[in-house]
Amino acid sequence: MRLTNKFGLPDPIVNAVQNTGYTRGSSDITVTQLIQPPLIRKLGKEHYEEMEEDASDRVWALFGSSVHHLLEMAYKGRTARVEERVYAEVLGWKLGGAFDVLEGSTLSDYKVTSVYGAAGKIEWERQLNVLRWLLHKNDTEVDKLQIITIFRDWRPREKQKNPDYPARPIMTLPVRMWTLDEAEAYVKERIALHQLAEPPMCTDEERWATPEQWALMKKGGKRAIKLYPSQENVTLGTDQFWEHRPATYRRCEEYCSVSKWCPLWSNVTF
Questions:
Q1: 146-162: buried (b, 16+ CB within 10 Å) or exposed (e) per residue?
Q2: Residue 155 CB partners (closer than 8 Å, separation 6+)
Q3: What is the mean pLDDT of residues 43-72?
Q4: pTM, whole model, 2 decimals?
Q5: Do the beta carbons of residue 249 and residue 207 sit within 8 Å?
């Protein structure tokens, strides 16, 4: 993959985002890849040499790497395991995953994210439960999972206006823990999907889809009176009209590095 610098970032920043120190170890597939859509992984392998990413798009990842580096130093001298990678053989593949902190029987993962991005992240639940299963396969038991979020866009004034807004820029979120049997079934199902020569198309959930909607509008108004999934069984008033809002796929539009080679996305956009 080629790293570009279209916005002229200083060389030290470019060098930093290019050398975050990430390694997948000896794994055939990582926990992150396991959770992501199999089609994305397949296209990424096929087109890796053609792919490019701008340094500006890695800035927040750099923040995350910095936090992990500081935490690794902060935990020195404590009875905790920090930034370790564990493996297990599954259906002939070696699955590897790196965890942030295991202290006692509590597995913690640190995330630098937006306030909005912390809501209902099923990927985080899957990640920690697979890591817990990997630790179990390596004779280490975990009985508590948690995400420690650091909000990069937290604003004090928002708390005064919104009672549901985080009270501080750091929050600990408990993560629902699966049974080990549930985790193993999930891991095997995902490995089998990734092993297919022709993986399935991404689901709407994986594409972070917002479904098609029809907005009931009032003439002269700027905001919808109400949103509907279709126009059926709705009678318009004399001063009302429909505004069609097509489905959107946020991951495909903004966050997928292989969308230009994806048959599903190409069919949608061209």
A1: bbbbbbeebeeeeeeee
A2: none
A3: 89
A4: 0.88
A5: yes
